[in-house]
Amino acid sequence: MRSGNEPVTARSPLRLRFWLSLWGLIWAAAGTAAFSLAGRPGWAAACGVVALLAAVDLAVVVHRIHQGPHYQPGPGVPPYEPPRRGR
Q: How crowded is residue 32: how many other Cβ atoms within 10 Å of its Cβ?
């Protein structure tokens, strides 16, 4: 629900989330490889799960970035009326 007092200079955190997901994917993949080579299958599996989660998050972020900016009403559009209770 739009209240009418949203910040004018608000920015999307998608680019930061992209870089953090990429960083996490790199480290988790490296951890998976290192633990596999060291003979630690439990830790390798845990790092593999983290790598999978980071890859999914990265795919979602890239999809949202490619969608582009969505319509945001300007200052001339009045805020929505709050929902009325007890109808």
A: 20
- Residue 44 and residue 40: Cα distance in Å, rounded? 6
Q: How many CB atoms lie within 10 A of CB 29?
A: 17
Tokens of residue 74, six digits:
């300007």
Report residue 34 as tokens.
């290192």
Q: How many residues does the chain have?
A: 87
> What letter represents residue 57's amino acid?
D
Residue-by-residue pLDDT tens, the chain, 87 positions:
555 555 666 667 889 999 999 999 999 999 999 999 999 999 999 999 999 999 999 999 999 888 877 666 667 766 677 677 765
